[in-house]
Amino acid sequence: MISIVETTPYQDQKPGTSGLRKKVPVFQQKNYVENFIQSIFDSVAGYRGETLVIGGDGRFFNRETIQTAIKMASANGFGRVIVGKGGILSTPAASHLIRKNDAFGGIVLSASHNPGGPDEDFGIKYNVGNGGPAPEKITEAIYARTREIDRYAIADLPDIDLDETGVFSAGDMAVEVVDPVTDYAELMEILFDFDAIRALFSSGFRMVFDAMHAVTGPYAVEILERRLGAEPGTARNAVPLEDFGGHHPDPNLVHARDLYDLMMSQNAPDFGAASDGDGDRNLIIGKGIFVTPSDSLALLAANAHLAPGYSAGLKGIARSMPTSAAADRVAEKLGIGLYETPTGWKFFGNLLDAGLATICGEESAGTGSDHVREKDGLWAVLLWLNILAVRRQSLRQIVTEHWATYGRNYYSRHDYEGVDTDDANALMEALRGKLATLPGSSVEGLTVATADDFAYLDPVDGSVSANQGVRVLFEGGSRVVFRLSGTGTSGATLRVYIERFEPEPSRHDMETQAALADLIAAADRIAGIRKHTGRPSPSVIT
Ligand code: VG1
Ligand code: CO
């Protein structure tokens, strides 16, 4: 039986950089989830009888929301739902299932790197038929719909048992509960030389993968340990927990500190990696050397041809605007296009679909390719392993050789978290107000070449996305970028991205913060960070 339930709209269901993210108690309000899901269905057309993929990162409130989504998909006329066993699907695995099954779209439940639990974060994201996050046109339509929605449809059905694989029925709709890992692992076997990686491991190569008690645990155990023969225990914190063990599942130098410390120690293994809550980010650390995500993108692009899936070469590289220009010089050398997009994976979809780019990346530890339409943490780890297996050099050697060839982009991101929203907005407004007067001025001994608020013209569909971050470029190629996060759930987070290009190999071994000291001071002078936020220093430096 299908119920049409009357509801009243919420005014705050605006999707951010990556879907709708709020605290769990916000999602637990009456009809909050139902309103949002119905608004998704109301904003897209043509799904009758079609397939919807549903899965999440396993965080608190995942299972309840999946049951609701299944009943609403049934009532709204979907023909089939594919859901991961236990409600688990990593974001890239969900993207793959959408593509592989020619699904209409997918609902991905995650707040990614944000903490989980009854008082922590939850999120709902809609992905379209290419497997990627809905473009802005659709997220704007969903938001508009949430502001006036007055009813939703839900089937009056018992809960589906998510812990058994198989095909079940939910009204007229079929529900397929699938193993979350199998299809994804098969795709990885096509892209990478598993024999070469197995040989690497059997030669004594050791790695540690920290799944941070998030979604990638089962994927890492199956792929790294079972299929590639890495030592048992290579995947650590491999059991997904609803609260990620009380930690932030954010693979950065703050939250993956244990891994970092291990990799910097005397008995470090050869390779360290981690992924985030929903499995789309990656952290890469060699013995004694941290690889910035921006460098990792450049290195992967420069070496991708060593993996079978990319032996034909790359069509192009895309990176988000705040990501360093390290990849630009690789694209130049390869003679392929380089695309600079706003922050957020949804902007890469068109470039990948149109065959303009093969590899994409963001400074926030996201890298991926045209194999799916999301960034993909384990994919990046496997591409690194494939490269290491072929080159048989240490990660440090590979990185320093890369810098010697292309120059080094010193890079850091400073986050000021939990800033008062009005203060953060005032800072950005003041910054925008002075953009016109910055060029030619001198700050901390640096001369401003250009300053603007980044706007993106999508070369495929001609859409324009304005106000995507303020960038101040200095003479000589250094720059600072300022933007406010679109994934937080309380207050505002100011992100300051700092970059300096150093072509000279004899100056490639500086400590990053020291190498960027003048730019860090200039950023504060230009934006008045301390003055506006009252913060003497950033809360997180990556
Ligand atoms: C952050 C990152 C961005 C990433 C987004 C989603 O967004 O900066 O690069 O695409 O998170 O990643 P923001 O607006 O907070 O800067 V994830 O792993 O949350 O799906
Ligand atoms: Co994520």
TrEMBL record:
Superkingdom of the source species: Bacteria
Catalytic activity, as annotated: alpha-D-glucose 1-phosphate = alpha-D-glucose 6-phosphate
MF annotations from Gene Ontology: magnesium ion binding; phosphoglucomutase activity
Organism field: Neoaquamicrobium microcysteis
Essential cofactor(s): Mg(2+)
PROSITE patterns: PGM_PMM
Any matching Pfam family: PGM1_C_vert_fung
InterPro entries assigned to the protein according to its UniProt record, in alphabetical order: A-D-PHexomutase_a/b/a-I, A-D-PHexomutase_a/b/a-I/II/III, A-D-PHexomutase_a/b/a-II, A-D-PHexomutase_a/b/a-III, A-D-PHexomutase_C_sf, A-D-PHexomutase_CS, Alpha-D-phosphohexomutase_SF, PGM
Protein name: phosphoglucomutase (alpha-D-glucose-1,6-bisphosphate-dependent)
Keyword Secreted: no
The UniProt record lists the keyword rRNA processing: no
GO cellular component: cytosol
Keywords: Isomerase, Magnesium, Metal-binding, Phosphoprotein
Polar residues composition-biased segments: 1-16
Family to which this protein belongs: Belongs to the phosphohexose mutase family.
A GO biological-process term: carbohydrate metabolic process
Domain annotation Alpha-D-phosphohexomutase alpha/beta/alpha: ranges: 13-151, 191-285, 294-406
High-level lineage: Bacteria, Pseudomonadati, Pseudomonadota, Alphaproteobacteria, Hyphomicrobiales
Annotated region described as Disordered, given as residue ranges: 1-20
